[in-house]
């Protein structure tokens, strides 16, 4: 048994005081045989006092304590208080089966008492009925406390599991967000750096433009990373601004500045600003991932990439990205010196999860010569 703390000592002292006060206050109401000698009565009271002191053993051995007190009760009229404390402790801290066995021992004399035909005006009848009623109350109250503690423990465990699941989902969302944002920015850096390395004789103007794009992309990547880390450090500071469908035009413009031949066909009824936030944000991430993969796995920076976004209220939203690509996994970036742009292979997996959470579908694969990324997203009326 672990050592008692302050609360345990306070509870045990309270139980001892209750048992002692019960013995003293109920002394006049306890029926005592008129023929009992003063010495026997004194010994009976001393037995009650020892029973009260034995209450401090209720945590170490509640079942033996309750058993001994119940067996001693017919020989001592002043053990009722300690018995109530012992039965309450057993009902709270032991299995219901153990409590049921002790209940059988506690209420075993009831049939014998009823069979004896007690008189209603006999003091022993009132004393016995009061005793058994107190036993039933102690056991019932102990079972109630036990069930309440188990309920609180179950709720705490459920809350802990929910908090753990929430933290896991938050980490996955942050990891997915970092992949979507940083992979796009860093792939732009890789394309321009590879172009400078591949063409060392570029004019100063070309070098200056490429360096400017690299600087801007690096700055934007740091800003995106700073925002994400800021959310992690100050989760109560509010949500960072999320992209919408209208931002797809800026996204494709950045890819064009990086040298990619990106064509955008936007056919959205009412304009891209009318798209639902969830569908628009998911469509933006799909286009972002498609452009990133086209730079990483396409045959070259000047390979054509087509982005088509169509939809409207009640019709849904469709997003399609097509670009030439080779199917071998060992493809290398043609603008570099033979080093492929690294990828974790988790982009499409996370993108599919994101699309499913938005209520849509995602398909990807080769259709002969092009790699096709196609998604459908709901747009209710």
UniProtKB/TrEMBL annotation:
The chain crosses the membrane at residues 12-32, 69-92, 98-116, 128-145. SUPFAM superfamilies: ATPase domain of HSP90 chaperone/DNA topoisomerase II/histidine kinase (SSF55874). GO terms for molecular function: kinase activity. It catalyses: ATP + protein L-histidine = ADP + protein N-phospho-L-histidine. It comes from the Bacteria. Residues 171-236 form the Signal transduction histidine kinase subgroup 3 dimerisation and phosphoacceptor domain. CDD domains: HATPase_UhpB-NarQ-NarX-like. Residues 293-345 are annotated as: Disordered. Keywords: ATP-binding, Kinase, Membrane, Nucleotide-binding, Phosphoprotein, Transferase, Transmembrane, Transmembrane helix, Two-component regulatory system. Its EC number is 2.7.13.3. Coiled coil: none annotated. This is histidine kinase. It comes from Streptomyces smyrnaeus.
């Amino acid at each position: 048994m672990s050592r008692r703390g302050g609360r345990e000592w306070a509870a045990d002292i309270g139980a001892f005081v209750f048992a002692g006060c019960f013995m003293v206050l109920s002394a006049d109401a306890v029926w005592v045989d008129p023929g009992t000698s003063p010495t026997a009565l004194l010994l009976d009271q001393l037995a009650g006092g020892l029973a009260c002191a034995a209450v401090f053993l209720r945590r170490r051995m509640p079942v033996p304590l309750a058993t001994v007190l119940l067996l001693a009760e017919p020989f001592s009229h002043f053990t009722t208080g300690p018995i109530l404390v012992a039965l309450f402790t057993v009902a709270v801290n032991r299995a219901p089966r153990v409590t049921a066995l002790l209940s059988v021992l506690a209420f075993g004399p009831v049939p014998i008492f009823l069979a004896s035909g007690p008189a209603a005006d006999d003091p022993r009848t009132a004393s016995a009925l009061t005793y058994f009623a107190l036993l039933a109350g102690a056991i019932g109250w102990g079972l109630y406390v036990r069930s309440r503690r188990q309920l609180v423990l179950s709720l705490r465990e459920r809350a802990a599991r929910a908090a753990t699941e929430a933290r896991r989902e938050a980490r996955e969302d942050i990891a997915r967000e970092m992949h979507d944002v940083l992979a796009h920015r860093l792939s732009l850096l890789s394309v321009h750096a590879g172009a400078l390395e591949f063409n060392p004789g570029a004019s100063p103007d070309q070098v200056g433009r490429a360096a400017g794009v690299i600087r801007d992309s690096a700055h934007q990547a740091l800003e995106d990373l700073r925002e994400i880390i800021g959310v992690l450090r100050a989760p109560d500071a509010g949500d960072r601004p999320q992209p919408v469908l209208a931002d797809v035009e800026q996204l494709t413009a950045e890819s064009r500045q990086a040298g990619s031949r990106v064509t955008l066909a936007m056919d959205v009824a009412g304009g891209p600003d009318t798209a639902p936030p969830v569908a628009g944000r998911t469509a933006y991430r799909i286009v972002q991932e498609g452009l990133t993969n086209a730079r990483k796995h396409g045959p070259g920076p000047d390979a054509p990439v087509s982005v088509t976004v169509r939809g409207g209220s009640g019709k849904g939203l469709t997003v399609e990205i097509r670009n030439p690509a080779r199917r071998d996994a060992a493809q290398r970036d043609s603008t570099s010196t033979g080093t492929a742009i690294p990828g974790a292979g988790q982009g499409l997996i996370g993108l599919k999860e994101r699309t499913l959470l938005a209520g849509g579908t995602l398909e990807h694969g080769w259709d002969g010569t092009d790699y096709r990324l196609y998604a459908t997203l709901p747009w209710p009326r």
